[in-house]
Amino acid sequence: MKVLVVGANGQIGKHLVSFIKESEGLEARAMIRKEEQAPFFEKLEAETAIVDLEDDVEAIAKAAEGVDAIVFTAGSGPHTGKDKTILIDLDGAVKTIEAAKMAGVKRFIMISSFDTSREAIQAAPSSFAPYVAAKHYADEWLKDTDLDYTIIHPGALTNDEGTGQIKTHQESEIREVPREDVAKVIVASLENDTTIGKAFQVVTGDVPISEAVNALS
């Protein structure tokens, strides 16, 4: 299975491409914004596609030609304004979903926020609410398609070394989870069709990742 990783140069994206390299049956195409980002992925023998999420749908669809799955790991980051939140976390995600349709790619994995419910938008601090709202509407757009989607809602992300053990839930209490473990959850989800049509939260726990993902069926 060839996987287009959107937001590959981000922290989860880099872990993901590395783990895909180590896996059997998966290969990565890294979608990046700049040519100077390519050497990292070339060392991993991953293809690269240079496309900005602010480009049009057709440019993203071209990057997706010939792949079997798309993983959206992109994010505007905590230090950008509300404009980038809309353009990347909402519009970028929707354009990528539409590009998947255009390119005939059925499998789509979205990395979302821990809680994207209407209640979470209303409860969020004013500085964070636009991000939650953007993720909410991107998730809803994906659910309204006929794509084989999985939506992963990670807890508070850290750069700690992964434990390989998680807890998956529909409404678990927010706790931390290493980005490394989130990337491993993505790989497990790509390898397990029982995650199709599922949306689940992920935090650090005491269940091995493969076992936790299998239990989602």
From TrEMBL:
Pfam families: NAD_binding_10 (PF13460)
InterPro entries per record: NAD(P)-bd_dom, NAD(P)-bd_dom_sf
Positions in coiled-coil regions: none
Family matches, as CDD domains: SDR_a5
Annotated NAD(P)-binding domain residues: 7-192
Protein known as: SDR family oxidoreductase
UniProt organism field: Salipaludibacillus agaradhaerens (Bacillus agaradhaerens)
